[in-house]
Write a structure and sequence with these properties.
The complex is a heterodimer of chains A (about 160) and B (about 150).
Chain A (H helix, E strand, L loop, with lengths): L1 H40 L5 H19 L9 H4 L4 H7 E7 L12 E3 L9 H4 L5 E9 L2 E9 L4 E3 L2
Antiparallel strand pairs in A: 1-2, 1-4, 3-4
Chain B lengths: L1 H36 L2 H17 L7 E5 L1 H9 L8 E4 L4 E4 L6 E5 L5 E8 L9 E7 L7 E3 L1 E2 L2
Parallel strand pairs in B: 5-8
Antiparallel strand pairs in B: 1-6, 2-3, 2-7, 3-4, 5-6
The chains are: A alpha+beta (about 160), B alpha+beta (about 150).
């Protein structure tokens, strides 16, 4: 009777050891996977460059296309810009002869909330868009072009 | 002596399950680290953004672009990716997809309404020459939906 009790205790001990062993392996695996993900997983932050490039494209278009009465109404078409990508990831605001374009209530063109580009806290916060604010003079009028980018990569399965 | 051998055999038999689990887990971890160690995902992200953001977005209709992709092709070939599947331009969704690892690819959209045609991947056979891709940019409704940079033969 006593012997069988001892054996049972022994078997239980073995199983407990197996659980602890698996737990340790899981702990090590999680550590290794987390390390790899932290080291290789973060995205190459291209938002500042992409906002500058779009800003350049818009200014170049303002300069070359000529400002007719319907220019800002057909901005995407005139400047050959991809509306779907811009609407999903960008902020655009264009003002004419404005001292403070970010809070200007009567811009020539606006898409998205350009106030995010004026927040000082946004510079340090990675969740805020990266912005580019540039000016260009066309036909004697000074245009301020604000572009904010939130564009990230798309991971595809194939 | 016999007892000692018997003890070792018993010990091995009792701990076999631990050994098998440990070997499986270590092998899986080594494979996972090996797949990520050459930075395939990081370089995919880099190439997709640089090609889309700095080349296609600043290109003009009629341009022919030749780009050195030596580093990308080295990683892709090491990871067993098909030479004809590394760079793909999606004219419908306006994005470039880069595939440098077997599991997945990274895509980045361009803001310009422009199409890509005739993309070729060329091996740099001359000494010091790197592998390149060459593609043309144009504006047409007749563009293929997807243009893959195929190995020039």
């Amino acid at each position: 009777m006593q012997i069988s009790k001892i054996n049972k205790r022994g078997e239980l001990g073995d199983q407990v050891m197996l659980i602890i062993f698996i737990f340790l392996l899981v702990l090590i695996s999680v550590g290794v996977v987390s390390g790899v993900l932290i080291f290789f997983g973060s995205e190459y932050d291209f938002r500042a460059v992409s906002s500058e490039v779009l800003n350049y494209n818009i200014r170049d278009c303002l300069n070359k296309e000529g400002l007719d009465s319907n220019f800002f109404g057909n901005l995407y078409e005139k400047c050959k810009l991809n509306e779907n990508v811009i609407n999903s990831s960008y902020i655009i605001k264009i003002c004419a002869d404005s001292k403070d374009c970010i809070s200007d209530a009567g811009p020539k063109f606006v898409y998205g909330d350009a106030v995010q580009c004026g927040l000082k806290g946004g510079i340090a916060n990675v969740n805020y868009p990266r912005c580019s604010i540039r000016e260009i003079k066309v036909d004697g009028i000074s245009y301020t072009v604000i572009v904010g980018s939130k564009q990230g990569r798309r991971l595809a399965s194939g | 002596m016999k007892n000692k051998k018997g003890d070792f055999g018993d010990l091995l038999a009792k701990n076999l399950i631990y050994l098998v689990i440990a070997v499986i887990v270590v092998a899986a971890l080594m494979m996972y680290i090996g797949m990520n160690a050459n930075g395939g995902g990081v370089w995919e992200d880099f190439y997709a953004k640089e090609i889309s953001g700095k080349i296609v977005n600043l290109a003009v209709v009629g341009d022919e672009v030749t780009l050195n992709v030596q580093r990308a092709s080295e990683i892709a070939l090491k990871n067993g990716v098909n030479k004809d599947a590394m760079f793909t331009f999606d004219n419908k969704n306006k994005e470039v997809c880069v595939k440098l690892r077997l599991a997945g690819s990274t895509c980045f959209a361009y803001v310009k309404n422009i199409q890509v045609e005739k993309c070729e991947f060329k091996l740099g056979l001359a000494e010091g020459a790197g592998n390149t891709i060459t593609f043309n940019l144009f504006n047409s409704d007749k563009a293929e939906e997807k243009v893959t940079c195929k190995l020039a033969r």
